[in-house]
Structure to design on (614 residues):
């Protein structure tokens, strides 16, 4: 696959003045040399290929926006190398800007007092988009979102969701090779989030645009990203396909079974005995007892299965030889809970 | 093709400024009050003097000069220091830095709308009114062409000075003090608030070596003195051109150095 962005051992340090409180403190600050170094990004390396949608995740202050600013060329790395489309972004900022689109969730690049169609036309001119390409793009947009309602509205009269939608459309207008979306869905309602996901997905598909997305919404990640990169405190924790994320914990799934007839008194004692019985049954059946562990909640028996060692079907088979299964339910470990564990330092 | 980009930005800026008709009317009214004030001020100055001519200027010379100076300075100003300064503080500047156009050109063309509108709504009417009230005391001739060129150069000089001051905001992270200082210095030394003829000799000599007088004083000298030989006018324009080139290169280098060390605010 053809790579489009490359980061090699990239770090960024910020020098921050240790500020003091009060008027006296402020005056002291004027002459202070008391600096603190923040390692916002610490030795990050990755290669992003053409057409990928990469989820760039991490808790607040992890260094995501800083990385994006370096990849777009507004910040210069303290050390390391970045190549975007074959150019060094901060050295050729304007040239690089021609090939990328950027949306910073809380900022807008649209002309505030003008109808959004005017902004699109200005962008068309400054990115020197040919008429035909522009019209094709507008047509594509119209097929995804209801443009008629948006185009003639001044940006300042738009809701946050509508504005964000328009900002994303604006970022794609010159058909850039890469689009950076920094927390685009922050503060939006469910319907608008869904629309934005669809939009990004379609544009990525139609134009083979590489998308780098930061978000705190795992719904965005599940809907869009095949690959995710997780950083925390500036350091990279994970860079792989999203399927591999769960493997960090082993490929666990939880099988939840109802083994009691309706009306059975399911007190703690009964459930405990039941789960012990099931455990001994499974132990007879399988040689590797580390493949599962048992617990119970209310009247349900829960079997946590390590799928790298055995399969859910085999366990189910073994159980139903002796017990009647009244109801069953299979639960994946969600991306959300995996990521939360990573943030919390579970790995 | 490049021209189209610039025109598009100018057009946007025009549309944008037209949204704020209220502000335009306010500037107009404010300017009227200012003119009234300086009228009485200078009347008092001339009344207290023994002679009708001070520093080679009659009362009406001075008034004509000052009315033009305020109208000129008013339409030249782009207010970019506030705009850029605020954008640096809020971090919004990233959005403009990521345009495929050099930042300084982007700021210039996106700030063009207001001067253009003010030229039509303030400067031209003022010029016409003064022309008739003063009994056609303003010479009309080749000076108008030179004046137009000189105004364009003056505007560029003013823009570069503003851009320089805005760049300083990247280091200080505060705008207010710096901007006030700039306004006082430029307002005074450009000849926008007092004709340079009224400056003490030494100060005037120093000021002539600074870029500020090339903003307002130069075009007005050309406009009001049709009798200047062409060679003298060309010298004035030449000095302006020198400042334009010097500041163009200087602000570009300064911005390049500064933008490397900016730490764009906000997540
Ligand atoms: N302009 C700046 N000056 C000083 N420190 C900064 C600046 N921008 C970011 N930081 C610091 O760098 C770290 C990473 O910030 P950021 O990249 O914005 O995180 P994220 O986008 O992942 O929430 C934080 O600790 C933040 O305080
Ligand atoms: Mg951020």
């Amino acid at each position: 696959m053809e790579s489009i962005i490359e980061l090699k051992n990239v770090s960024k340090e910020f020098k921050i003045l240790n500020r003091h409180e009060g008027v006296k403190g402020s005056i002291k600050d004027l002459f202070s040399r008391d600096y603190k170094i923040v390692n916002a990004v610490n030795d990050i390396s990755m290669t992003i290929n053409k057409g990928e949608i990469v989820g760039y995740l991490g808790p607040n202050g992890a260094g995501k926006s800083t990385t994006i600013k370096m990849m777009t060329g507004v910040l210069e790395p303290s050390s390391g190398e970045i190549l975007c489309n074959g150019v060094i972004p901060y050295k050729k900022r304007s040239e690089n800007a021609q090939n990328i689109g950027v949306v910073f969730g809380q900022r807008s690049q649209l002309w505030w007092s003008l109808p959004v169609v005017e902004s699109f036309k200005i962008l068309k001119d400054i990115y020197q988009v040919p008429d035909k390409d522009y019209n094709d793009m507008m047509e594509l947009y119209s097929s995804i979102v209801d443009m008629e309602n948006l185009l003639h509205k001044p940006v300042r009269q738009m809701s946050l969701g509508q504005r964000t939608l328009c900002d994303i459309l604006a970022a794609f207008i010159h058909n850039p090779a890469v689009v950076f979306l920094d927390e685009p869905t922050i503060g939006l309602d469910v319907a608008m989030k869904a629309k934005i996901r669809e939009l990004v997905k379609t544009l990525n598909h139609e134009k083979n645009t590489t998308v780098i997305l930061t978000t705190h919404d795992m719904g965005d990640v599940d809907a869009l990203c095949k690959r995710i990169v997780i950083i925390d405190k500036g350091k990279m924790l994970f860079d792989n396909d999203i399927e591999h994320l769960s493997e960090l914990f082993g490929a666990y799934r939880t099988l939840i079974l109802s083994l009691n007839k309706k009306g059975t008194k399911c007190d703690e004692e009964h459930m405990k005995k039941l789960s012990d019985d099931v455990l001994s049954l499974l132990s007879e059946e399988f040689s590797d007892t580390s493949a599962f562990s048992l617990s119970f909640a209310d009247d349900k028996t829960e079997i946590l299965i390590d799928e790298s060692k055995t399969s859910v079907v085999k366990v189910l088979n073994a159980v139903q030889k002796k017990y009647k299964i009244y109801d069953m339910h299979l639960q994946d470990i969600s991306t959300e809970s995996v990521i939360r564990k990573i943030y919390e330092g579970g790995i | 093709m490049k021209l189209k980009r610039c025109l598009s930005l100018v057009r946007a800026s025009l549309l944008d400024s037209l949204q704020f008709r209220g502000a335009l009317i306010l500037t107009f009214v404010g300017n009227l009050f200012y003119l009234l004030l300086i009228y009485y001020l200078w009347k008092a100055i001339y009344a207290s003097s023994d002679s009708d001519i001070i520093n080679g200027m009659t009362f009406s010379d001075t008034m004509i000069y000052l009315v033009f100076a305020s109208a000129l300075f008013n339409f030249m100003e782009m207010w970019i220091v506030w705009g850029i300064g605020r954008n640096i503080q809020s971090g919004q500047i990233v959005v403009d830095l990521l345009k495929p156009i050099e930042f300084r050109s982007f700021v210039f063309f996106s700030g063009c709308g207001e001067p253009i509108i003010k030229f039509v709504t303030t400067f031209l009417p003022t010029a016409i009114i003064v022309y008739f009230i003063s009994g056609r005391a303003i010479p009309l001739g080749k000076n108008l062409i030179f004046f137009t060129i000189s105004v364009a150069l003056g505007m560029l000089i003013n823009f570069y000075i503003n851009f320089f001051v805005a760049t300083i905001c990247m280091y200080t992270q505060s705008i207010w003090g710096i901007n006030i200082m700039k306004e006082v210095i430029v307002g005074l030394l450009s000849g926008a608030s007092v004709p340079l003829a009224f400056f003490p000799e030494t100060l005037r000599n120093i000021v002539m070596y600074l870029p500020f007088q090339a903003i307002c004083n130069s075009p007005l000298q050309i406009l009001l003195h049709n009798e200047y030989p062409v060679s003298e006018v060309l010298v004035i324009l030449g000095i302006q051109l020198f400042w334009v080139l010097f500041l163009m290169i200087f602000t570009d280098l300064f911005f390049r150095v500064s933008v490397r060390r900016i730490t764009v605010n906000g997540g």
Chain A has two domains: 3-247, 249-343. Chain A has a mean pLDDT of 88. Chain A touches chain B through 34 residues (CB under 8 Å).
